[in-house]
Amino acid sequence: MPNVTLLYDAAVQLGNLPRPIKARMVEWIVRLADWPEVSGAKPLWGNLAGHYRLRTGDYRMQFRIERGQVLVEQLGHRDGFYDEGGA
Predict the structure, then answer these.
(1) Which of 3, 40, 64, 75 could share a disulfide with 13, CB 3.0–4.6 Å?
(2) What is the pTM of this model?
């Protein structure tokens, strides 16, 4: 069971989400401890190859796996989510 780490930017973004979305994101963070048995995770490609995303409606969570750890990198609305610099 891997450790799940919320990086600083993702923690700030989590705090700024609407309450119902924040609750869903927290559930996902808990579910990521069961990696790789996490349903709905999609691998990203191009410049983001090696990263994954989960989505709920218009919101996304981006994470990567590094040395057996799940690192949550960013959370936010889909508008501009994959642009350089994040959400």
Answers:
(1) 75
(2) 0.90
Structure tokens at 74: 């960013």
The residues, ordered by sequence, that sit 6+ positions from 74 with a Cβ below 8 Å of its Cβ are 7, 9, 10, 13, 60, 61, 62, 81, 86, 87
Query: What stretch of H or E contains 53?
Result: strand 51-56
Pick the CATH number of 4-77 from 3.40.1190.20, 3.30.559.30, 3.30.2310.20, 3.40.50.720: 3.30.2310.20
Q: How far apart are CA 74 and CA 50, in angstroms?
A: 15
pLDDT in tens, 16-32: 999 999 999 999 999 99
